[in-house]
Amino acid sequence: MKRLKINIAGIVQGVGFRPFIYNLAHRFALGGYILNNAAGVEIEVEGQADKLDAFIQAITREAPPLAVLAEVSIASLAVCGDREFVIKNSTGAIVKTALVSPDVATCGDCQREMADYTDRRYHYPFINCTNCGPRYSIIQEVPYDRPATTMADFMMCSDCRVEYNDPNNRRFHAQPNACHDCGPVYQLFDHTGRPFPDDTEQFTMTKQLVADGAIIAIKGIGGYHLACDARNEQAVKQLRSRKIREDKPFAVMGGSLAAVRHLCFVSEAEQAMLSGSIRPIVLLTKRPEYDLASHVAPRNPWLGVMLPYAPIHWLLLAADDVWVMTSGNTSDEPIAYDDQDALERLKGIADYFLVHNRPIYQRVDDSVVREVRGQSYPLRRSRGFVPAPILLSSAIPSILATGGELKNTFCLTRGKQAFLSPHVGDLENAATYNSYIDLIHHFEKLFDIRPEMVAYDLHPEYLATKYAQTLALPKVGVQHHHAHIAAVMAEHGLAEKVIGVAFDGTGYGPDGALWGGEFLVADYANYVRAGHLRYLRLPGGAKAIQEPWRLALWMLFELYGKDLANLAIPFVRNLPASWELITTAAAQGLNAPLASGAGRLFDAVSALLNLCQCINYEGQAAVELELSAVGQTAQLLPYDLSDSKPRCLDFRPTFAELVNQLQKGVNPALLAAAFHRTMVTATVDMVRHISRDTGITKVALSGGVWQNSTLLIQTLSLLEKSGFTYYIHRQVPPNDGGLALGQAVIAGHRFR
Ligand code: ZN
Ligand code: ZN
Ligand code: FE
């Protein structure tokens, strides 16, 4: 006989781990106990030595699907004669190191019960079990127990309680367990707040309203969605105008995989992403049969699609339904999740509200991914992913990294674990900024992290930087593009130097210019700027980002001076009369900062080709350029690569050739494709030169411009063909949503 104490840290709470251990102990006839503590679970088992060995092996081999065993430690104890195995109550220990599970999509068992009219949870919109249901969004603190969730106010009925207490039941200690008799309920309201009287018919009513063209605000897991029929041109158009969202594509939810396959091509990898337990929005390629309203994703070869993930979605969407499901907010504001707030903010947008009474403790947006080379490439990391940590290759001090400005997230670290916040949004918005501060405090409490220092972006005007300055902690300023590259390195556990290609719109450069087309030789501690894109001026400063025609104007002015007026191209014909004033001011450097941003170059070309002169969402000009390039055969245009230190990529020859061909009447779509190919070739050419200088063959790609999949996929192919090993983001987004991870690891290594 032997007795062992086993401590397991990781995601072991709220995933059916205790019943699993309970059943395992019975199988091997062991006595003892299991309990949830703040670090994870604590187990003591007693029995024959060979049975104990088999027990320990079975723990890792048979663990429940959602469990993540981060650390297992085993110690021997004195035998004390336990025959029974029991599940004890949780203890709240001093150090809270338990991991919190992300929210999990409704599992197959629960879907089956929900569809079975003999089941007591037939059509119950809050059905869940230990393998599925809300987690992060309802948890107030750890250990994860019902009183620490927003289910605390719901008293379980006797039937639910029996399930909850029965270790052989799949709802054993399922904290959000509930049913028609005791759990939360939905209620349909009109936009004046008047409830729809017959609550047994409200889902049928909601479906009818959507079929008739109404816009419904639906409370879900992490916030409110705005929903309408994606095939109803009028409804989708109305949603766009009420939400003040002109061109940015909407995501949709399909009622079944078959419905999605009818609209889009779905690879095996994409199918796995669509129907797994995370259920992000997946960007898919539209099929010729695509038949949704033209306003869903205008001019776009791709469509953001998700499958139902909360029980309510299964109840509302028929198998062939496709609904627009966009986050419940007006542009730029955070997603609504509080009922009163939602009613006020969304009443001018939604015709009806389908609301439930289970509070959402933390808002969490839908995540967005796309497939790149057979694997998931994240564009927005939120629901289903957070708050699972990103594992670092070595432990670092506890750091708060405050991130950037747009699409912001922050990061808190603890040992080898990096907790990246969900997508928060653009901090310039006051409501978003406040939710950012609140969320930092929530994360600090949830993971019991008291940061030893704060890392921030060097840009003095970023609100996240200003916030960092207010904290009484040692501070580490991190260069924006170094942080981007370090984020990819951290994901892949790279400690050696890499060639980092950081392409984004703008980031603060230590020389006072705006960087964003950077080739860095970097490790975590340091970087050298080995190359960059040639600077161009942004006439009008920030205005040039909203109005890309200013960039194209500057490029033409550099090449042709005032003679640009004689160019026979649509772009020049459409220039406002003020163009001469603008170029004169810019030439004198008046409100015209220098910028090397790759994003700005894409903007300039997009404007020159007359594709997009002014934007109504971030990155639009570059997106329109990519959309226009898709599927076109591409010629290679000239460019210059200097031998200076740092090396400089000059696209003036490219621009001149684009102008030449435009004057000859070449189709702008062909030129958009040619520009992409030229960018790819020039980028890899630069990498080859830097590799020759340094002997480094590992290349890491990061920055928002790498959301351009045409550019990304062509670059990966060419890097591979040229003998390089590439590293791209697989866990955090390439845009500024991944920045904080890089800041944290850099600060951690500097601290050493
Ligand atoms: Zn379930
Ligand atoms: Zn019940
Ligand atoms: Fe950036």
Which short descriptors sum up this protein?
single chain; 752 residues; Alpha-Beta Plaits; DHBP synthase; 4 domains; 22% strand; binds zinc ion; binds fe (iii) ion
Structure description:
With about 750 residues, the protein is an alpha/beta fold. Helix content is about 30%, strand content about 20%. The strands form five sheets. Strands 6, 7, 8, 9, 10, 11, 12, 13, 14, 15 and 16 form an eleven-stranded mixed sheet that branches. It has a seven-stranded mixed sheet with strand order 27-28-24-23-22-29-30, with helices on both faces. A five-stranded mixed sheet has the order 4-1-3-2-5. The longest helix has 27 residues. The relative contact order is 0.09. The mean pLDDT is about 95. The structure holds zinc ion (2 copies) and fe (iii) ion. One zinc ion binds next to helix 3.
